Amino acid sequence: MSAKDAILKYLKEKSHEGALQSELYELGYSRSTIAEAIESLESEKIIVRREIGKKAYRVWLIEEAPFPIKGILRLGVLKAVEYPHALLTAKDLEKKHDVRVIVYSSALELTNALALSKVDMACSPLVTQVLFGLLTKSLKIAAGCGFGGSGLIVREELREGLTIGSSELSTMETMLKLFLEKHDLIGKVNVIYFKKPEEMVKSFLEGEIDGLSIWEPYLSKLKKMGFREYRYAEKFGLYPCCTLGVNREFLKTNAEIFKEFMGLYRENTERLEERKGEALELMVNFFGFSENEIKEGLKGFVFDYRLSKEQIEAALERFGLKVFNLDSLLAGRV
To answer: Structure pTM?
Structure first.
């Protein structure tokens, strides 16, 4: 293993805590070799250093650094088909700025990364962003992403005694709760939580759970396999699923990049149909879904950057939340 590889492996293990530069000198290479490797990785914009004392530095992978970096945008997205306009915007912005798209499997992990400043902007569930925003005061909601696009899949009939999988503190949990209330099944089914959609789907297919509250393209894929589907939008109308959040410190450090991103984001939402082919290619590359899976999944969403305060309040009310100072969580007009 080269000195560069050893440094990257060590920093990956350290996550957002980073490592003192002096720790890296203990990786089994000469001091000069490590120093040269650090300088090279820094010039390649793979790592970032911060002086924390007299001749003392802490080092992070750029994708793990818990602070915004001037001139760089780290966009976090979930493994879903809800963000074609965000991916197109990242692609457009790459012509002028250093833009990095980071894919997460867990909504909680992604929104936590946004709160920690490990990512600068993120597409994750509205409810999750509101809760983290209230707790940490470190993020704002900038715009809508997709509306609808999720539902409940069950193996056979909907009945008492089922075990249903969901993701915690998310739109999936909110809509599942509403659905169970409508069918008088609150307290009559067992709901268990998963961090990653792949784990939930695997558990369902192996018969460990009887149903799951899931988003696209997993929803359409499971329906095609013959399982019973209940789409939440058909029961309750359109609702905001994920929203585009921004870290407050990023707004201070890279205000111009944020402004450019939002302008392009609005434009790409409105032009989404004419750029659909580009969006499909991006999602195939980032997420590994097939083109057909993505096309089917896209049909379940309505894409809109506009998101009113009233829509947010209604979504939170479904979750049982009343936020009295909602304006403090909004990044200008959404």
So the answer is: 0.94
